[in-house]
Specification:
It is a single chain. This protein is 34% helix and 18% strand. It has 425 residues and is α/β, with parallel strands linked by helices. The chain has one domain: Alkaline Phosphatase, subunit A (3-Layer(aba) Sandwich). The strands form five sheets. Strands 9-8-7-10-3-11-14-4-15 form a nine-stranded mixed sheet, with helices on both faces. It has a two-stranded antiparallel ribbon with strand order 1-2. A two-stranded antiparallel ribbon has the order 5-6. Helix 12 links the parallel strand 16 and strand 17. Helix 7 packs antiparallel against helix 8, helix 8 packs antiparallel against helix 9 and helix 8 packs antiparallel against helix 10. It is globular and about 60 Å long. The N terminus is likely disordered.
């Protein structure tokens, strides 16, 4: 396929033809080399290991605040929060701190990489990316981060697209639970306020595993629908968040030494949750890449890293005592495919750099108003010698942008989830 790229400039538009190129972005929340390196060494993550060994990798430095909607919007725009407009999980309309409202896509003040590629004529597909509700029009398909809640308005573009994607139910989770833990989960005994270990453990499984698995299962199904629906997209971005959730909840059972006094029985019940979840995600990576084949440029990216919630990172609020993992500022980046230098490990790069790097890889100019830079050192051969071109900005002067979040039927559930993590009071 030949793509006609429209290159914006202050003086007008230049039209040129570029060769066929496909890019897949796999966004895996809270990925850390502290876990992935040993998991790969044990042979647990064959698909991610194949990408890393056949391409380039780096430690990806995050930004503050360590809030996923903020960071993932920076990843998707190449810009810092002061430019893209998303600065926390929630906003407080009219300054009322007792009335938080989850951030929404209407607050974003700049174009994301899929907007830029859409306008350049590429067929794009975006699945589950943070802060994409309400759905916006793209040259392709977009399934928002709230689509898994079911019947809410504007959960996908085109609007009908999500209707045939089944919403996973508890039975879907129960059928696979033995793969992840040795625990007889009883939803009727969920009790976050209980001093009874059984009630608290059931709450942990509901809060940190069931929600995560069912959400990610929905977006795996959505990705399958996209890939089964006609030609493969030129650009595919898939976001899976459950790796962060299970690391928050089950870290002390995987790594009890920093915590001390972890009952052996609970380590036996929950000690393999995190590695088993990463194996499940690795299978999703393999399923996606099997559709695309070799001649695809793949980026695997996280928003931040993770580690045990001890010392400076300890959990201090009693109501969050079921949490034992916390964020770290060092995430992961893997790049693999045509033009990428093989067997390369880079020093730390930034979450701001992904969008400029994608634009460079696809033959488009980088916006001078972007805070990131194209990572030309990821590339080898002729690709590394290609000059970086620039355009002043992809945003139109005077473009009207909403500054307040929109409400949705999913807001109460979103707020409950944020409170369970201690992100909001």
């Amino acid at each position: 396929m030949v793509v006609v790229a429209v290159l914006a400039s202050r003086g007008g538009f230049e039209v040129r033809e570029s060769g066929p190129v496909r890019v897949v972005v796999l966004a895996l929340d809270a990925g850390t080399w502290d876990l992935l390196d040993p998991f790969m060494a044990r042979g647990l993550l064959p698909n991610l290991k194949k990408l890393r060994d056949g391409g380039a990798s780096a430690t990806l430095m995050s930004i503050q605040p360590s809030s996923s909607p903020v960071i993932w919007t920076t990843v998707a725009t190449g810009k810092m929060p002061d430019k893209h407009g998303i600065d926390f999980f929630v906003r407080f309309p009219d300054g009322d701190t007792g009335n938080p409202q989850p951030v929404s896509r209407t607050m974003r003040k700049t174009k994301a990489v899929w907007n830029i590629l859409s306008e350049a004529g590429y067929d794009v597909a975006v699945v589950g990316w943070f802060v994409t509700w309400p759905a916006e029009e793209v040259n392709g398909r977009l399934i928002t981060d709230r689509a898994h809640y079911g019947s809410i308005d504007k959960r996908a573009f085109p609007s009908f697209y999500a209707e045939s994607i089944g919403i996973p139910r508890r039975d879907d989770m129960l059928a696979v639970l033995p793969r992840f833990m040795d625990f007889e989960y009883d939803p009727k005994r969920v009790n976050p306020d209980s001093r009874d270990p059984t009630g608290l453990e059931n709450f942990l499984v509901m809060d940190r595993f069931e929600r995560a698995y069912l959400r990610d299962l929905y977006y795996r199904r959505a990705t399958d629908k996209v890939l089964d629906d006609g030609p493969l997209p030129d650009f595919l971005a898939v976001y899976l968040r459950g790796t962060d959730d299970v690391q928050h909840g089950f870290w002390k059972y995987m790594d009890p030494e920093p915590f001390g006094n972890i009952p052996d029985g609970s380590v036996d019940r929950f000690g393999r949750v995190i590695e088993a979840y990463w194996q499940w995600v690795d299978e999703a990576v393999g399923d996606i890449l099997a559709r695309y084949g070799r001649n695809t440029l793949v980026f695997v990216v996280s928003d931040h890293g993770a580690g045990p919630a001890v010392g400076y990172h300890r959990v201090v609020a009693d109501e969050h005592r079921h949490l034992s993992g916390s964020h770290r500022d060092r995430g992961i980046l893997i790049a693999s495919g045509p033009g990428i230098a093989r067997h390369t490990r880079l020093d730390a790069v930034s979450v701001r750099d992904l969008t400029p790097t994608i634009l460079y890889a696809m033959g488009l100019p980088v916006g001078r108003d972007m805070d990131g830079r194209p990572l030309t050192e990821l590339f080898g051969g002729q690709s590394s010698a290609r000059r970086v071109s620039y355009v002043a900005s992809y945003d139109e002067e005077g473009e009207a942008v909403a500054s307040e979040p929109l409400a949705s039927e999913a807001d109460p559930e979103i707020l409950r989830h944020l409170r369970s993590l201690g992100y909001i009071d």
